[in-house]
Design a protein that fits this description.
alpha/beta; 5 strands; elongated; 13 helices
Length: about 375
């Protein structure tokens, strides 16, 4: 009976009050939420450990071994009012999630990362570590004696950062100019309704019609100028998008030779490129080897999206500020890690482990 609450937490994050109501609906027993908390506090560690051992045993039975290629990243969460850093490693090929390290954010530094890697990967093969572009990773990888591969998704995002700011600014300008054109066209319609077209020159005493004609001509020139400025903005946006697509193609190349050729062709036109593209190109050129580790090697992913997906599944935005105690966040992270390994690494869809036997019915979910 005491283990029911801990088992339910593997399926979904359930408030103790809601859990008490579920038990009352199914068993007809009213259990105070404080008792639910105490039961979970007493039994959760034992159940979590048993589940982790059973999943690891199944991983071993299926001969799923560490590939040597790993995805690494951090996630920053809040526990009560304290900021925490969650360090996470996943096997890039088997998708096995290793135990996380959660610590106070003020204690998070390169030594902490190195200590975490040493703790988790000390007896495992070390081929390549896929990370984002943070400046502290190269020295950590060097000290850990592992090759570093940079996430191309982050690289492309950084490449597009300045150009997109320009494009967004151009969009604002374009909208403002379009509004001006609309206003001018409305005025132009009124002027055209008042103006009586006639051939030849205006008479000396025909001052009103002459002024109307001059106003109409002025408005048409304004519209023409604004349209020309919009075309210039469109051309600038088109050029930026063209070069950003060319840079993205570098990382999608099938061979290193093709990737290098694409980079060199852009460098040859450097004098013609927009400044925002030149800056991005220089950064890519410096980190070219680390950004192209995945080319020709199917075991190395091109991005760090696996660990980003893991964070979204196991501790999404709703949960990042949800927890109140270190025990609570540790329990839930362990439970979600076990569920990930069971479903993603082992590829199981049915709940064969004892901890997954209890499933909420439709009636319970609608309480």
């Amino acid at each position: 009976m005491k283990q029911l609450g801990s088992r339910l937490q593997f399926i979904e994050k359930i408030a103790y009050r809601k859990m008490s109501e579920i038990f009352q609906a199914i068993l007809g027993i009213r259990i105070p939420k404080s008792t639910m908390y105490n039961h979970q506090d007493q039994t959760s560690d034992e159940i979590l450990t048993a589940v982790e051992k059973e999943i690891d045993a199944e991983v071993e039975r299926q001969e799923i071994e560490a590939s040597g290629n790993y995805n690494y990243d951090e996630q920053f969460i809040k526990v009560s009012k304290n900021k925490k850093a969650k360090l996470q490693l996943l096997d890039a090929n088997t998708k096995y999630a290793y135990p996380a390290m959660i610590l106070n954010q003020d204690k998070f530094d390169s030594d902490t990362i190195l200590n975490y890697w040493n703790t988790i990967l000390s007896n495992l093969p070390k081929e390549c570590m896929i990370t984002d572009g943070h400046t502290m990773y190269p020295s950590i990888c060097k000290e850990f004696e592992i090759e570093q591969a940079l996430c191309t998704f982050h690289a492309i995002h950084n490449v597009r950062d300045k150009p997109y700011k320009i494009i967004n600014r151009n969009n604002t300008k374009r909208k403002n100019k379009s509004k001006k054109i609309k206003t001018i066209e409305e005025n132009l319609t009124e002027l055209n309704n008042q103006y009586i077209p006639k051939r030849g020159r205006f008479r000396k005493n025909d001052t009103k019609q002459r002024k109307l004609y001059e106003k109409i001509q002025s408005k048409n020139r304004q519209i023409s100028t604004l349209n020309q400025e919009i075309r210039t903005l469109n051309k600038e946006d088109k050029e930026l998008n063209k070069y950003m697509d060319k840079i993205s193609l570098i990382f999608k190349s099938k061979t290193l030779k093709t990737a290098k050729n694409r980079l060199n062709r852009l460098k040859e036109d450097k004098s013609k490129l927009p400044d925002s593209i030149v800056d991005a190109l220089d950064k890519i050129d410096k980190k070219f080897d680390k950004l192209t580790k995945h080319i020709g090697n199917d075991d190395i992913p091109s991005t760090n999206n696996l660990v980003e997906l893991f964070f979204n599944v196991t501790c999404g935005n709703k949960l990042k500020k949800h927890y109140r105690t270190d025990k609570g966040v540790d329990r839930k992270m362990r439970a979600n890690r076990s569920r990930w390994n069971y479903r993603v690494c082992l590829g199981k869809t049915d709940f064969i482990l004892p901890v997954f036997v209890i499933q909420p019915t439709e009636k319970i979910l609608n309480l």
